[in-house]
Amino acid sequence: MDSFSTDTLPKTLPTGHARINTMQMQGIVKHFPGVLAVDHVDFDVSAGEVHALLGENGAGKSTLMKILYGLYQPNAGEIVLNGVHAAIKSPADAIRQGIGMVHQHFMLVPSLTVAENVALGLRSSREPLLDLNTVAERINELAKNYGLQVDPWAPVWQLAVGEQQRVEIVKALYRGAALLILDEPTAVLTPQEVTDLFDTLRHMVRDGHALIFISHKLHEVLAISDRVTVLRDGRKVGKIATRDATKESLARMMVGREVVFQYQRRAVEVGPPLLKVENLWAHSDRGTDALRGVNLDIRAGEILGLAGVSGNGQRELAQVLFGLRPALRGEVLIDGQPVTGKQPAALNRLGMSYIPEERMIDGVITDFTVAENLILQMHGSRPFSASIFLRPRLIARRCGQLIENFNIRTPSQETLIKSLSGGNIQKLVMARELSRSPRVLIAAQPTRGVDIGATEYIHQRLLDQRAKGTATLLISEDLDEILALSDRIAVIYEGEIVGVIDRSEADVQHLGLMMAGVRSEPDAAPGAEV
Amino acid sequence: MPVLAVVAALLIGAVILLLMDADPIRAYRALYDGAFGTKNTFADTLIKATPLLLVGIGICISFRGGVVNIGGEGQMIVGGLAATALALSMPDARAEVLIPLCLAASFVAGAIWGGIAGVLKAYFNVNEILSTVMLNQIATYWMIYLMSNTLIDPEQISAASRIPETDRLPRQSDLPRIGPWLDSIYEWLGLSSAESSRWAPTLLHIGIIIGLVLAVVVWIFLWRTTVGYRIRAVGKNPRASRYAGIRVKRYMVLSLLLSGGFAGLAGGIQVLGVRHRMSAEGGAIAFTGNAGFNGIVAALFGKLHPLGTIPASILFGALLVGGNKLQRTVQVPSALITVLISLVIIFVVSSDLWSRHRARRRVTLAAQEPASPPGASAAAEMDGVR
Asked: Which CATH number covers residue A28?
């Protein structure tokens, strides 16, 4: 701060705050016990541009940005703002110097209003009284300038995820952020919301803001950024102008090898409907109707993608199908046999597998070893046990095969799950569920939080399973995933199936509209037999 | 780590002893001599350790199964009552029949008492800590009632003294003493010892052997059988267990059932091996010696591992037995022993919490921060973990 004074700043932004013409991070190094998280990385951003920071989970993106935001101190290297060395010891320092951050997990108080959230931690202009009206006025002004629709008086808990993110952006702008770090901002948005967000970002760039956009979604990086820096294993592996980049070249840099985007989809003989859902109703945890007459059917050798914005009944549907939540009305049939209300154990035996959304809570026991987790359903049957005794040698042999077949990277079978990475944990869950040769597979958000390499692998496995004649329900909020894998796509909105379309007819715009609740075509009646 | 906790507790105890003008070295030597000095005191230590061990291995099951059993006291009492009632009702049975029957009855009675709390928790969502504590009260009053009415020694009535205790149990129900066996083992090993230090005259009974064998059995049960696996799975993550098709409620009940069974067995062994009658004189604690609670500490001290519980319960047995000698030798109030034991408990529990906290910190650090260096795939970035 000593060498940094607002007088040296050439211009002010419309926000009336400091402008950051250039920011350079030079030779940044960050050690954590046993790991070099960031290894001599240079990174820079200038006013009026979006610089994307791309990398897999664990590549060091977040660590680098936390250093810029003052959450971590680097072991070596320096940060230069407008040509002057800047000391950033805490987020407060960062904010004071015009750096803002929109975190992936929002830092909002749900019971307070938007204005209260924005004012939180700031000095009121008329202490000791609040000046929420002034705050609200300023919010409206910012909202107008940047095309951010927010109601200052709405309590945050009532807001949709996209709106909450806008509040976070307003919060940062309100604090005079000239440089804004956006940590995976699109992870929770619908396609339309992403478009809106990008409009806002372009507005901000035109206004002279410097933006850092962290992501691992390649097409978004290509769409919004001016330059891209790619990190891998803590090192900078590339920096290019976005106009010179392609999806393939970025992925190669990110993963370190060629990545397949177009999967080989073998033509599969689709069989008779294996899983049928008829007029299914169910409550949410809060007792409201989460499912309101869902109809679906999935044939053998088919992947049905269920698209929708999170919270529209996907979770409840998966739980009802797997016997974890009672159905109020309606029927679930496997092979024509009603299975509604059956326990998970019985459904397991009928050949149903489930890859749960919350894998750390529902999918694995984090305090158990890799081997113990691999036998979670099957421990009671051969070859894992005989009479009442487990058979450690046979378990070890079988688990060894699974670890190898599914490419699970673990130091040993005796390693506790909690020390594996997200991608490897998901591969373990896949290994366990697919090794039982399921006839019906429910995969909920199978690649959320999983890096590109593992994602590719998991997708390939789901397609293999399809070729083996499994009927798969793929629940995902990631439209790319749905489009890449599904034979047909059903869209769920507020507990109802808005429509089902074939993959050949699907396009993002159309799906996006359906996800927002707009019925597809008048003749494709909602929830109709497909 | 637990050893450090004991050392720390003894050091603080030394400071307290100094403040009371007692010589800590002399005091601790007395404590040791009192617990292990002679075959007789060693035997006492093992006798005191037996119920702690049995309750403790039951606690291992329940805590591993994710349920907290604070009802060891009540389960010991009902176990003791069952053994007593059965022994009294079969005065002519042979030992080989009577003893196994009585021990089985005490296990079953304790299991029922624990199982009640298990059913209440699994199916009616009643907190098991509360229900087990309340079941302790019920067991105590039930014992007092039976001791002063149904099961009272007829002589107490005729003599009009009405001390609430039963008649002495038939001799065949006395647990065999193992002193002579130990002596022959010593001889066979060529360790023939002086006449003055033989096991034979001690009161050491077969209960400790039962405890040791069961500790091994429970160890195998928890880690080598399907049912044990399910109990541990439910204890670590009931949601994932349910998703995997395990009947979570059933295994919750089973953990409390088994846990109660071992406490009940501890009660039965107390009756058949030590007291040879049941008495309500002095209340519950006179019968259980607080083993229903101290067994929890022994189990925690043993890291909730049945084999770890063995040295842990011997340690607490030694503190209880050696404490008397300490008190006599350096002339300090008997409450000091309670203070010492409590210090050990505090240090054990807090060191456990501390190391768990550190472990968690390490895990979250590893999970949040760093890029995994090739090979050591330990980490996902913050944004990966959710």
From this structure: 3.40.50.300
Name the β-bridge partners of A86: A79
Per-residue burial over A467-497, b = 16 or more CB atoms within 10 Å of its CB, e = otherwise? eebbbbbbbbbbbbbbbbbbbbbbbbbebbb
> CB distance from B129 to chain A under 8 Å?
no
- Residue percentage of chain A with pLDDT more than 70: 94
Domain around A383: 361-436
In A248-307, the residues whose Cβ lies within 8 Å of chain B are none
Any alpha helices (H) in A450-489, and if so which ranges?
452-467, 479-485
A372 in a domain, yes or no? yes
**Tell me: the pLDDT tens digits for A363-376?**
999 999 999 999 99
Tell me the residue range of the domain where B325 lies.
23-331
Domains held by chain B: number = 1
Are A135 and A118 in contact, with CB atoms under 8 Å apart? yes
- For residue B386, tell me if it sits in a domain: no
Is A504 part of any domain? yes
Q: Note whether residue A128 is domain-resident.
A: no
* DSSP strands (E only) in B172-236: none
Question: Mind listing the pLDDT tens digit for each residue in B100-110?
Answer: 999 999 999 99
pLDDT band at A157 (very low <50, low <70, confident <90, very high): confident
Q: Are A474 and A446 in contact (CB under 8 A)?
A: yes
pLDDT reported for residue A528: 42
Beta strands in A266-404 (DSSP E): 273-283, 289-299, 302-307, 329-334, 337-338, 352-355, 385-386, 389-390
How many domains does the structure of chain A reveal?
3
Query: Is some CB atom of chain A closer than 8 A to the CB atom of B250?
Result: no
- Type of residue numbered A112: L
The rounded distance, in Å, linking the Cα atoms of B191 and B193 is 6
Residue B214 to chain A, least CA–CA distance (Å): 17
CATH of the domain at B200: 1.10.3470
Residue B376 within a domain:
no
Mind listing the pLDDT tens digit for each residue in B74-112?
999 999 999 999 999 999 999 999 999 999 999 999 999
Residues 6 or more apart whose Cβ sits within 8 Å of residue A408: A370, A402, A420, A424, A427, A428, A431
Cα dihedral sign for B87, B92, B96, B101?
negative
Question: In Å, how far is B42's CA from the nearest CA of chain A?
Answer: 37
Q: Which residues of chain B neighbour A58 with C-beta distances below 8 Å?
A: 370-372, 379-381, 384
Average confidence (pLDDT) over A463-468: 92
Q: Would you say residue A282 lies in a domain?
A: yes
ipTM over 0.85: no
Mean local confidence (pLDDT), B322-345: 84
Token couple for A289: 């109707």
In this structure, are residues B205 and B177 in contact, taking their beta carbons and an 8 Å threshold?
yes
Whether B303 contacts chain A with CB within 8 A: no
Query: Which of A29, A32, A54, A445 to probe the B interface (max B CBs under 10 A)?
Result: A32
**How far is Cα A163 from Cα A148, in angstroms, rounded to an integer?**
9
Average pLDDT, chain A: 86
| Better-scored residue on pLDDT, B98 or B183 | B98
| Chain B partners within 8 Å of A63 (Cβ) | 369-371, 381
Closest-CA distance of chain B to residue A205, Å: 25
Across the interface, do B244 and A344 touch by the CB < 8 Å criterion? yes
Average pLDDT, integer, range A68-86: 92
B378 with A62: Cβ contact below 8 A: no
